[in-house]
Each structure stands twice: as C-alpha cells, then as structure tokens.
Amino acid sequence: MNIGEAARVSGVSAKMIRYYEQNGLIPPAERTASGYRDYSTNDVHMLRFIRRARDLGFSVAEINELLGLWRDRSRQSADVKRIALARIGDLRRKIEEMEQMAATLEHLATCCSGDNRPDCPILADLENPDDGDEPKRPRGAIN
Amino acid sequence: MNIGEAARVSGVSAKMIRYYEQNGLIPPAERTASGYRDYSTNDVHMLRFIRRARDLGFSVAEINELLGLWRDRSRQSADVKRIALARIGDLRRKIEEMEQMAATLEHLATCCSGDNRPDCPILADLENPDDGDEPKRPRGAIN
DNA sequence: GATAGGGCTTCCCATCGTTGGAAGGTCAAG
DNA sequence: CTTGACCTTCCAACGATGGGAAGCCCTATC
C-alpha cells in the first residue's frame, strides 16, 4: 500500500512517516517501480506502535530503542530484557503518578460537588509526593 | 523565598518559573523592595503541581485550566466538576494505554528471557487495540 | 488521451515547551 | 569588596509536528 493508505490505517500522518523514515526510526520503505513508497502490514504495525508510544510520551529516541529490540536480531537477549524492564519501570512510575493526579482531581470534583465550593485542595494534596526536592526529573521522557 | 530557592524546592527551573509567570500560568510573583521575586509555600505548591502535570503530559493550556479551577473563586462549581471529570477521563484512558504497553513489554521481556529470543511480538500484540482504523485521534491527526 | 488527485522531492515557516546563552545591571552575604 | 545570585531583555536552538509551496511524475477515471 502507498503512503497515504498507510497513513490512514496507521494513524500516522504521511508527513510523519517520511520524517520517521528520514530519521531512521523506520527502515526506508520499499519502492514501487515508479518510486512510490510501498508499505506492508508489518510496516503498518510498526507505525501503529510508534503512534501509541508517542501518545504515551515516549520520545522518538526511546521508540527507536524499543523498535531496535525487535529489529536487531543480533542483539543480546539480556540487553533486550534490560531495556524492556527499564521502560516498564518508567511506565509503572508514570501510571502511579497519573493515578495520584486522578485521585486529586476526583477529590476536587467531589469536594466541589455542591454549589458552594470550598477551598479546593488541588495543591495541598499534591505536595506530599516524593519529588520536588530531588531532581530525579526524567521529564516527560521527551528530549 | 527567592526564585532560586523556589526553583530548587519545586523542581521547576527559575527560567521556567519566569516563563510561566509571563504566560499567565502563575500570577506575577510578589516582589521584594529590591525587585526580587518572592515566593510563598503556596506558590511552591502551585509550581509542583505544574511540574507534576507537565510530567504527566498535560499541556500548559490544560494546566492553566486546572489551576483556574482552584484560582477562580467566581467559577461555577458545576464547571469545575465538569472539567475535573474530563481530565480524570483522560488520565484513566492514558493509564489503560500505558498498562497495555507495559504488558506488551513484559511479554517481550519474558519471551526473550532465554538466550534465544524468538520473533518478538511487540508489534503483533499492539495491533488489536481499538485505534488505528477509527480516527479518534486526539493526537497527531492525520493532516 | 485528458484531467484530477495522489504521490514524489525539497524548501521554508510556525508552533509549543524548554533550555541555553549573552549582555548589562542590582543585590546580599561572605 | 568580591562573589554569586538575582534582575531584565534578547536571541537561538531543540524535538515533534503541522502547514504550505513548487515542480514533477504517476495512477485512476471519464
């Protein structure tokens, strides 16, 4: 299938597909005799994976690393496992933070459920979590 | 406390604090007689909240909205609740996606735990989730 | 065969969040 | 007094993405 269809079914814009190819995130697409990029369903899977990972805040570099786990047949399995586990750790941490945030907002929603909202505790609730002093800062992954 | 200390304890760089102030995300800081910005612990809470929200992928605009819930005393409680619930929905959705991704990576990690890694199913596992065909696309957008 | 709508390429520009630096000045603590 | 932290304003860059223009080629349809 050509780039337009691949974009449609993967949810990644044609522009970004070309961009990813240019930056080595995906291998250069096959070309038809007339020079059109030609995508397999496998390529589409890769694109979907990329999109999902981007949606979750993974940087392109990180996605590249993840795709490498699958791509590089030559890679040490221990390496693969290590990287995967590290990413899982990141995810779990972020999930926890998100749950905290959701809880805070839920508290806000219920505490304000009447018509007379009291002093809303968005901030008060959020000061306890670990961070702030330590600059662990993995920062949105991006970068 | 001055901006440096506020940055230190909030985990938001001094530069970003000024940037947030400039963009109305936080109200202009008090100033000492000599013109230094002067931050209260409340301000620090706000900064921490901002940082946490940014880490979770909220855009500055969204954070502004959230801070507004707490800031604007004049706001309709129903409004506050609506927005909070919407954000909670976003979070829950993202948490689910992250859990899927973590599961996939876990599968990868265990399937590759031996020394002979098989065809890794990163992509195969990821094609089933809803998206891709339907263009719900809050994100990248197709073009 | 002509036309329209993709695709191809290479540009350049804009956005957002963030960081970095320079320059030139003021302040506070040693 | 010196040093470091702050003040200001600027300007640039990054990564990821979107938008567009220009010019040319391909494909499908009438």
From TrEMBL, chains A, B:
Gene3D superfamilies: 1.10.1660.10
A matching Pfam family: MerR
Cellular component aspect of the GO annotation: cytoplasm
Region (Disordered): 124-143
Coiled coil: 81-108
Residue span, HTH merR-type domain: 1-69
Protein's UniProt keywords contain Cell membrane: no
Keywords of this entry: Coiled coil, Cytoplasm, DNA-binding, Transcription, Transcription regulation
Cellular localisation: Cytoplasm
GO MF terms held by the record: copper ion binding; DNA binding; DNA-binding transcription factor activity
Entry-linked PROSITE patterns: HTH_MERR_1 (PS00552), HTH_MERR_2 (PS50937)
One Gene Ontology term from the biological process aspect of the record: positive regulation of DNA-templated transcription
Protein known as: Cu(I)-responsive transcriptional regulator
Upper lineage: Bacteria, Pseudomonadati, Pseudomonadota, Alphaproteobacteria, Hyphomicrobiales
